[in-house]
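Batch manifest, entry 17 of 40.
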Amino acid sequence: MTNDFKTSDFYYDLPEELIAQTPIKERDHSRLLVLDKKTGEIEHRHFYDITKYLNEGDCLVINDTKVLPARLYGTKKDTDALIELLLLKRISDTRWETLVKPGKKARVGTEIIFKEGLLTGSIVEVHEDGNRIIEFDYSGIFEEILDRLGEMPLPPYIHEKLDDKNRYQTIYARNPGSAAAPTAGLHFNDELLKKIEESGVSIARLTLHVGLGTFRPVKAEYISEHKMHSEYYELTEEEAEKINSAKRNGNRIISVGTTSTRTLETIGDENGFVRAQNGWTDIFIFPGYKYRVIDSLITNFHLPESTLVMLVSALAGKENIMNAYNAAVENKYRFFSFGDAMLIK
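Output type: structure tokens
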């Protein structure tokens, strides 16, 4: 792996008005920039044109994680002071790693009450990074209580309120556990997925629960010094076989999103085959990395100097990616979570 890249090598200039604040009305009507990773050639399309780039026998890999309405508002039991809580990672049935604001007064033993006592929590541990472990007490099903009390944890660059919280979910989301959406999948609707399957493309599902570390900036001067956050993934036998079957037949593996990509590259062997397993990945992909499993990638446009810009640069080459991003800016594409898409073919 090349170790001499600086974080600043992955900077591009983005006017703030191009950061999409709301999703567009029709999921598949977002724009699609198509980048040929070998030639660097660029085409401008719409997402519903994606079928033109998928061939019979290819395997499309999607991440079926579901975003939890993980932002909660409560009050301290002893003072009634307002507390904001963000669920980051489930540790057990009743324990979660969380981000608490304001953190200074949230010490071990602090009790928090949410919505007339439907849910209560007690801080049992404070980590070095400031995250808190909270033990929750409730009756009933935790996910149902969250649906009633929680708000979607939209990324920090989105300032508009989301009218329909389902628009920050993919239509195929089914395994709750993410603090952020796998946003490349937001462009698919039922009709488009059906059309893709009917064309002879297999669709394989995996799960990677997206953590908030996905928005954490790279602070190291040299990217090789950056420490990635870890995220939980799982892939079943049945879904692994769909991927391996396409691979054996010489067809392409097309990953939907950087989350699917990181999972596949974590579990793929040197020949690009995968096996069913679950675990935690902190894989960091940047230029110099040789992809083993995926051939093509559907993804959104990522933040300057982010690990995700580095990941796509490893697939298409840094120069090609920077040219594509500059073309997207010139053509006024919409950026980030609710923005437009890119196909690296």
